[in-house]
Amino acid sequence: MMNIEVNGRNLRVKLYENSSAEAVKELLKKGPLTIPMKDYAGMEKFGSFGRQLPANDEHITTEAGDVILSEGNLLVIYYAPNTWKFTRLGKVQNLSEAELRKALGKGSITATLTLSDESCPPQKEVLPL
Known about the structure:
Blueprint: E1 2-6, E2 9-15, H1 19-29, E3 33-40, E4 44-48, E5 58-61, E6 66-70, E7 74-78, E8 83-92, H2 97-104, E9 109-115
């Protein structure tokens, strides 16, 4: 799981199992990542990771709550459908479409990404025999 904090709300994102989501997890193991995001076409918020990540593009139609990697370097949070070649990163779990639209608001936002405790289980201490 990944958390995306926007406008004082926490979006809980279940990450998919692919090399793109794994690359995002590796980035977040180094600490929180803050990404300025712009609104586009009344359907998405997007911002740059600042680096290329591995893509696993497929032709899909997004739904509200889809978290996508676009062009190999853009984080996109969809709140309306769009059809294109994208890489799925994850899906917002804790908000309805209406709640997501309200949380994202109008215009630009700042999103802070962190790994949730669920995706980083505590390391077990190994005692010598």
